[in-house]
Amino acid sequence: MSDPQPPARGPYPAVAPDPLGLVQRRTMRVLVVMQIIGTVGVGVAPSIGVLLAGEVTNSEAWAGLARTASTLGAALLGLPLGNLAARRGRRIALATGWWTAAAGAALLVAAAQWSLVVPLFIGLLLIGAGSAVSLQARFAATDLAEPHHKGRSLALVVWVGTIGSVLGPNLGVPGEIIHRATGLSVFAGAFLVAAACLALAGVVVFLRLKPDPLLTLQASVPSPAAPAGKKRAPVRRILAELRINRPARFAMIAILSAQVVMVSIMTMTPVHLAHQGGSITVIGITISLHIAGMYALAPLVGFIVDRHGHRPSIVAGILVFTASATIGALRPADTGWIMVSLFLLGVGWSFINVAGSALFSRVVSTETRASSQGGVDALANLCGAVAAFAAGPLLAASSFPVLSVLATAVLLPLAVLTVRRRHKTG
Prior knowledge:
Layout (H helix, E strand, L loop, with lengths): L18 H24 L5 H10 L2 H8 L1 H20 L1 H25 L2 H24 L9 H18 L4 H11 L3 H23 L4 H8 L13 H11 L1 H30 L4 H16 L2 H11 L1 H21 L4 H29 L5 H29 L2 H10 L2 H9 L6
Helix pairs in contact: 1-6, 1-7, 1-9, 2-3, 4-5, 4-6, 4-17, 5-6, 5-9, 6-7, 6-17, 7-13, 7-14, 7-16, 8-9, 12-13, 12-16, 12-17, 12-18, 13-16, 14-15, 14-16, 15-16, 15-18
């Protein structure tokens, strides 16, 4: 019997596996699972958290402040978590954020069960960490992504967050089950489920996000060492880079502008519909359509960003925003058209946010990458909170059409910058 012959070699040498590609695929799988679990816990804050604030405080003024506490928490914790990622990697930063949010949800269990005001505010503030790391997860998806795949990688992580946005507001259902089984109030049961989801998301990322994508990137593209005695604080490094990095400034302006426009109109639409006699069901459907516009089309938006570039995608977002505001200004009394307007508002935000975030990830330096991303998210949440505060008095003093027009005027500087500059990166 003759010896077996070795397999014939083809005309081309075997291709070695791409180690960074393997790490990126593993990273995406972990981020997707983490995002689905964690955003269920995050999604409870703007829905059941709002109801709890009204019940515990018995004051519309205090309830309004409590409703913005989670947004303020996301703004306050975004930069520290970004700095932590820069020092220790994505795994530690994301896990810390989820566990901080879980602690906040646990405090809200006590606040709901015994009507405690101070734990209510602290809990809502801490649960904002979940929003901060949910946003930073989209940047983690771009750390090792190829330049022509950054948009779709980022958009995929944004898209799976839709699941949490849909399931989170419905945690009252398991809350009812826990109420019947344990005697905890429905709200306390809902936040107990939220705490478990947030803690589990932290466990998933802590145990499975290995190797760390950001540390892997930093090892593969080492940044120049700072001169001895001249190491600057993270905020100063971020500001120094933004002064000289025009594409990064442009991307940041895009993200912040979209956030202000979206939040100012979205937060006042339920109030406007209620004044028009709209039912809770109609208001809920309208906000659900808005959320669908923000997230459901994200994979398609990411594909468009990668295929056609950042600048055309931002132009598309500005045009969709303008269409949304025009409908809101011309047909404010027509509920059907308001639903269309809110859906388009979400789509416009999706285009500008995905394109701006992908561009920012692409052009920011490795040295300030995580800190800068955390800083941009913190600013976006802070701008959103300010816009939400300002929109209420503005609506009371004028009308929904005026609010729609004034909110869209925020896009004018972005429109001018987009038309004037032709970025090599987009």
